[in-house]
Amino acid sequence: MKKILIVIMLLFLTSGCTVVRIDTKSIDNITNVVLSKNNKLYNRIGKGYKYYRPRGVSYIDTNELNDVLYSDGNYYYLYIDAVGYFYKTKIDYKENKDVYYSKKIEGEKSGYIEITKQDNKYLIEFVYNYSKIEALVKKQDINKVILDASYILSTVKFNDNIIALMLDEEYFTNKEEQYTKFKIKNENKDNFLKYNDDKK
Predict the structure, then answer these.
(1) Residue 114 backbone dihedrals phi, psi, to 5 degrees
(2) Residues near 51 by Cβ (< 8 Å), separated by ≥ 6?
(3) d(Cα 71, Cα 77) in Å, to the nearest integer?
(4) What is the bridge-based pairing of β-strands 74-80 and 101-105?
(5) Which SS3 state, helix, strand or coil, does residue 59 take?
(6) Cα distances (angstroms) measured from residue 137 to each of 19, 25, 107, 171
(7) pLDDT tens per residue, the chain (200 residues)?
(8) What gap in Å lies between CA 96 and CA 39, rounded to an integer?
(9) Cβ atoms within 10 A of the Cβ of 135, count?
């Protein structure tokens, strides 16, 4: 019995599993840790893209390439920039010192985070990896939303073939054709039933 327990413990220790604890008190730390990982997880597939939806984040609806998500009283609006991805558009963002939080994200994938105070709530705009999440939240929810958004945006993967088809104008051009398979045999112009009054 001891040998089996030792073998199981050795397998667990040598399996390469690592646990990373994220300090969720700092937006910089959250984004640095999550965005640095090469996450290949996904559990949500859209038209030309897929991504990982963290536990506790619910899918609500899709409109074209935009998803509505929900978690703990907050709605997340995910926008997928398939055109920007296809043409490899560069993001031009300058940090803004006049808002609550502003940070440009540079590296292999680029983007930015801008948090603006609006009345008693905060508008989060998180752009990364040709996708964007917007959410209007209370101050105490900012870090949780940034953590969820980091996982979602860092795992967005695009399907090049589907996006190329979506952007091909000729592929979706409608060609009108007249189908006559079910042609009306009796082409009587009078569609009303005729009443024959023979009671006279």
Answers:
(1) -135, 125
(2) 42, 44, 78, 131, 152, 153, 155, 156, 157
(3) 11
(4) unpaired
(5) strand
(6) 29, 16, 28, 41
(7) 666 556 555 544 444 444 444 556 789 888 888 888 888 889 988 889 999 999 999 999 998 889 999 999 999 999 999 999 999 999 889 999 999 999 999 988 999 999 999 999 999 999 999 999 999 999 999 999 999 999 999 999 999 999 998 887 655 555 455 555 445 455 555 544 555 555 55
(8) 30
(9) 24
* Residue 110 burial (CB count, 10 A): 16
Could you tell me the pTM of the whole model?
Answer: 0.73
Residue with tokens 């963002």: 93
- Give 55-63's long-range contacts (Cβ < 8 A, gap of 24+): 56/148, 57/148, 57/152
Residue 15: strand, helix, or coil: coil
Give CA–CA dist 185/175, Å, rounded: 27
Helix, coil or strand: residue 132 = strand
Residue 148 is classified by DSSP as: H
What is the Cα 170 distance to its own chain's centre? 27
